[in-house]
Amino acid sequence: MLQLQSNIAPTAAAREGGTKCPYCRHVVLDASDSEKEKELLRLVTRKEYDAVDEFTAENPGIKYKAAITAEDYPNGANVMMRPLHFAVRDHHPLPRIKEIYSSFPQALSLPEHSGQTPYDFLFQDYENSVPEYNSCNGSSWSKKTYLAVRKFLKGELAKRTA
Q: How many other CB atoms are there within 10 angstroms of residue 142's CB atom?
């Protein structure tokens, strides 16, 4: 568990095999699963793929299910967004989207504060920005990638409603 977002102190158990900080690699912390999920959400929102990979390797079974709360953002932006919302909105690579989805598939149907699901984000800016498919943070997908993500999410939605 990274100490950047928490004041959790290392315990003796943590020092003997707890989670290493991907940044400093020296601090080890003992944290609850919900705190670890929140840290994973933070790493996803920042597109820190190497840190995500290291964090998930050190925390097998951790789920991508934490959501942004009103306390996380003073202006209320992004409330109830989960890692899958960010991955789709911010154009993460398709393999990363699949990894996040497989960890917590329920997120595909969960709306954020304005009622948008991750699948809905595909139609917010992308249809109007052809051929670049730009996201709100400036990254972009090719049309081929956009269509692959759309096909994947549509297929998963169909399975869930069948």
A: 11
Is residue 81 a contact partner of residue 114, using CB atoms and an 8 Å limit? no
Q: What top-level class would CATH report for the domain 83-162?
A: mainly alpha
The residue extents of the domains of the chain are 83-162
Is-contact 49 100, C-beta < 8 A? no
> What pLDDT was estimated at residue 98?
97
Amino acid identity of residue 63, one-letter, is: K
Spans of the chain below 70 pLDDT = 1-30, 74, 124-139
The neighbour count for residue 157, using CB atoms within 10 Å, is: 15
Phi-psi sector, 80: left (phi>0), alpha (psi -120 to 50), beta: left
